[in-house]
Amino acid sequence: MTLFRSVATVGSWTMVSRLFGFARDILTAAILGAGPVADAFFVAQRLPNLFRSLFAEGAFSAAFVPLANRALVDGGKPALKEFAEEAFAVLFTALLVFVILGEIFMPWVMRVIAPGFEQEPAKFQLVVNLTRITFPYLLFISLTALQGGLLNTVDRFAAAAATPVLLNLFLIAGLLLMMALHLPDGRLLAAALTLSGVAQFCWLMLSCRGADVGLRLRMPHLTKGVRQTLRVMGPGVLGAGVTQLNLLVSTALASLLPGGSVSYLYYADRLNQLPLGVVGIAVATAILPPLSRAVRGGDTAAAIATQNRGLELALLLTLPAATALAILALPILTVLFERGAFGPAEASATAAALISYAVGLPAFVLVKVLAPAFFARHDTKTPVKVAMASLATNLLLTVILMRFFAHVGVAAALSVAGWLQATLLMTLLARREHFHLDTRARANLPRIALATIGMGAVLAALRAALHPALAGGAMMLRLAALAGLVAAGLAAFLALILLLGVVNWRELRRLPA
Predict the structure, then answer these.
(1) Which sign does the torsion angle of CA 172, 174, 176, 179 carry?
(2) What are the residue boundaries of the structural domains of the chain, listed by start?
């Protein structure tokens, strides 16, 4: 399977998931708005997602996939299954203990995660209760991530990429039941989140069996392979999950701001996550296995070529997405979200945060594309040092900027920290001669930037021309105007990259495996 097809497989399923997620967010905004229940649920959702990203999809997967590839090359599927079962047993045991401790000490955890909520006892108790319901999600989704890494190792990308669709379907069902049963406190929605984790785990368990890599639960033992995984994983907990850690810092500090700030940042981040998930996660997921094989085989040229094509493809899709989000932030939120409990004030506040997040979107994607170059070489110490610098920068800037710009300053600090992290990763790879821009990338990247600027100019002009329809027309007219803007921006960008000679689809299909 070529890199392009791998990215397309992961990206297409991620796009389906994000579209369902987009519908879920519109429904959430209409039902919960940006009130205390919304703030509490978003914090309750953030905590298990943080640990999932750190211990499972982040550091664990970064350590597991290269070692799983080695087991597959050395001993075939039997050796791969044995290694995966050993890792599964240890991960399951560790996470089960962690979840039980989290349930017991949740009030103390919330005093760190959402310190501002303590000023409102009812809100604080609500977030504790909701997080206790959502926290078991961590166990199931982490085991799901391991199974996904196992499937990716044998070049089965579709099943793992499809699992987030189940999450969104369960949450949409939870929201509809909340509305139908008049249960506004969020407990039903929190339960839907945990049940989605169970469903995702069962789905990938069946998928692994179908790929002849089904796992049995063994007694946990710290075997040589597991110890090596843990050694690689240890420092990578911060290196791979710094984006989630930064978001956690942002959420904790935003809880000190006026009510609704956590919700504004959540809705803005969810919109920003659409291209980040479709592009960044897809490219990072697809390049790690071939990159690991190239590095293990000593083929430096193939490794650098894979990295260049991943970088080029990521920026080709991310730069125009970030520009469009920044220019169309308010129209998107006004037309699609402004209804029910989500009014004009909430739309305006969220749009300001979205613009700040969009500035950092290319950086967040670059981090996901560059980090696998370290993970493929079993180097997680370097990313963790870079992560710590990014984390410190985010914390410092958030404390400073939120004093002047409230929640918008929180989003801006995260974007600056993302650019710092991406710049440091690329600089260190170049110094070690593990990466350089090849001739094709040096020619295409400026052209992509030029096409993005041209598309931005078209969108800005059309937004001004369509402002009456976007702001005051009937709903169908407003939807048509927004759809026209999106279509015009896409058409302008495609025309420009074709005119400038950036895209050659035949060549893209022959990208290195």
Answers:
(1) negative
(2) 3-436
